[in-house]
Each structure stands twice: as C-alpha cells, then as structure tokens.
Amino acid sequence: MSTIKTDREYFLDSIRAYLMLLGVPFHVSLIYSSQRWAVNSSDPSLWLTVLNDFIHAFRMQVFFVISGYFSYMLYLRYQPQRWLKVRLERVGIPLLTAVPLITLPQFFMLKEWSQKIGDWSSFTLYQKYNTLMWELISHLWFLLVLVLLTVLGRVTFRWLRDQHHHRDYARVGWGKVALALLGWALLWCLFRRLIFIFLPAWLMDGLFSIAVLQTLFYLPFFMLGALAWKHPALKTLFVRFNPLMFGGALIMFFIYMANQRFSSGEGWLYELDALITTLMGLCMLNVCFCFGHKWLNSHSPRIIYLVNASLFIYLVHHPLTLLYGIFITPHIASNTLGFFAGLVLIFALAFALYEIHLRIPLLKFLFSGKINRQ
Question: What angle is formed at CA 285 by the lines to CA 91 and CA 86, rounded to 5 degrees?
C-alpha cells in the first residue's frame, strides 16, 4: 500500500459536484429546447436551446478528467486488486441499484404516459431488448463507462505507474495536449465511420454505442486526469488561466451549435461532433480548473454536502424531470417560467429524497457503494 499523503483537492471536489448537478438544468432545459426528447414543450426556446447545447458540449469531458485524476490517486494508495474492488463497489453498486429502482420504473412510465417507446407489442425480440438497453442504461450511461474505464485502468494505470522515462512536462503546452487528444479522436472517427459503412446496425445498438463507443471516446480524458496526478506540471498547466483557451471555448461552442443544426446523421455529424467536443472539452477544462482553483479551493461544509449528495441527486432527478415534463410543462405557457419552476421543484424533491435515503442505511449503501464503519 502506498503511504502517499496529499492535501484534499477541494476545487476538484467542487467542480465534480457542480458538473454532476448540472445534469438537472441540462435535462430541464432539454424539455424547452429544439432537441427532440421524451417530452418537449409546444414551442422551443432559443436561449434554453443554447443553454442546453452549452452544458452538453463540455460537461462530461471535464468530469472524466477529474474521475481519472482521483482514480489514479486511489490506485497509488491501494494494492491493485483492492483498488479495483473499491472502485467497482463505489461505481457499480449505485449503477446496479438505479436500474431496478429508477430506470426500470422510468421505462414503464414512458411506455404508458409518452410516445417515446412506441408500439411495444409490435416490436421484435431484438427491438425489445435494444429498447430496454437504451432505456435501462439511460442517464446511467456514465456509470457504465466508469465501470469499464476502471476495469481498463487495471492495465492502463499499471502501465502509467511503471513508466520511468522522464518527459519534461513543464515543456508540454496546450498545443501538444490538443494534438494528442485530436489524434485519438480521429482514430475514433475512423473506427465509427468503418462501422457506419460495414455494420451500420451496430450504431443503433444501445449496449454497443455506450459500452464501446462512449468508453473509447472518454478514455483519453480519463487518462489525461491520471497524467495530471502523476505529473504536477500538467495540473499546473490546467489551473493556470489561458486566454486562448477561453476564446477557444467560445469559438468551439459556436462551431458545435452550427454542426448540430446543419449536419446530418448520414453525413459527418457524429465524427465532426467528436472532434469539436474534444476541443471544447479541453478548452473548458482550463476554464473550469482555473476558476475552480481560484474560487472553490477551500474547505466548505456546503461543498462537502453537495459532493456527497451530487450522485444521488443526479440519479433521481431524471424521472422527476420526465414527470414534470409530462404533467406540469403543458400547463405553463412561459418556457422561461417553466424552466425555473422545474429547477426549483426538481431540486427540492431530489434533495428531500436524498435526506430520506440518508436515514435508511440500506439505501445509503446501495446509492453510494460505501459501508459506514463505526
């Protein structure tokens, strides 16, 4: 076991919690955006569409960098088998819990009260299986990807730990980092395009799309976080404000919106999206880290509470948002009012459920993967 002792990275805890909680405004704004979802308002809102696009364009890239950072930190603290067990419990148990308690009831809710599922009785056996994969994984997809990245980390982290040649990371700038990530993104695009040409049905398969394509896309961000732990100069680069990265985030966001509106699925929409969101995520990594380090890098009971609550809030907010969209959205004429009313109601209900679950030891264990030791 490693004896490494480090100060707690409060700003990374804070960023991770806020990125998780951004899932609530993301899905509530999705109701009022021009994007097609399970439930939509009658008339989309331009500013809520822009807000939804902005959150979606960078949030998970930054999240997986932080996940890789903390995962590698724990890898050095534990023996590899112990690390794998602890990480799979922390991520896998909430994933397995949320399927029967959240996404399965959500599936029946959508089947009965929305048009999203369609005519279930006419589906083939494979169509039913594939629909269930999409709906049961649903907003839990990032937990499945984290499980797979953790399993891959058993190999990739060992390789990283055993690297003894000393690259001068103080000389590594944003250009080299961007080229490395773009190189991987281009390989991902080539892989997807070959599947599109020769096995297009695979792209419609929910399990393949999430377990393979999403995992491969976020792998370099996960490893970038691990590299930032191993090489402090890299983390220093991330937390030092760079005006070019700030400007790049704005430019890439406008390009992202243009691609979403003017490209087609049969064309290069998804490949372009991968390249754009790779760069957008990298630019926003600097924005989030530098401002987070400046303003959020201190101990705060409120932040600790949000860190502990954020996963549970994210897990339960999705069906609450769908219920809000199905039953309340049609009765609120103003999209802006509906959006803010939805935020208040969904956050209030989600935090109330969080407080209830804290008082039930079994639920607390199932939604955190942690055992309370007296």
Answer: 20
Q: Which of 325, 316, 314, 309 is nearest to 358 (CA)?
A: 309
∠ Cα 353 147 95 (to 5°): 25
SS3 content of the chain, % helix, strand, coil (to 5): 80, 0, 20
- DSSP state at residue 163: -
User: Which of 285, 249, 226, 367 shows the shortest CA–CA distance to 11?
Assistant: 285
Rounded to an integer, what distance in angstroms lies between the CA atom of residue 246 and that of residue 225? 20
Q: How far apart are CA 131 and CA 46, in angstroms?
A: 30
Percent of the chain with pLDDT over 90: 91
Is residue 272 within 8 A of residue 231, CB to CB? The reply is no
Mean pLDDT of the chain: 95
Angle at 119 between CA 117 and CA 120, to 5 degrees: 75
Cα Rg of the chain (Å, integer): 21
Lookup: tokens for 174 = 């944003």
What is the per-residue pLDDT across 224-273, written as a single tens digit (0 to 9) for each? 999 999 999 999 999 999 999 999 999 999 999 999 999 998 899 999 99
Statement: residue 6 has pLDDT above 60? no
Q: What distance in Å separates the CA atoms of residue 136 and residue 98, rounded to the nearest whole number?
A: 9
CA-CA distance, 39 to 115, in Å (whole number)?
9
- Dist CA 367 CA 374 (whole Å): 19
List, for residues 78-92, the tens digit of each pLDDT value: 999 999 999 999 999
Name residue, tokens 């899932």.
23
Pick from 312, 317, 320, 299: which is nearest to 359 by CA?
312
- Please give the structure tokens belonging to residue 362: 């079994």
Q: How far apart are the first and last CA of the chain?
A: 23
The reported pLDDT for the residue numbered 7 is: 61
Tokens of 79: 């023996």
Distance CA 252, CA 236 (A): 23
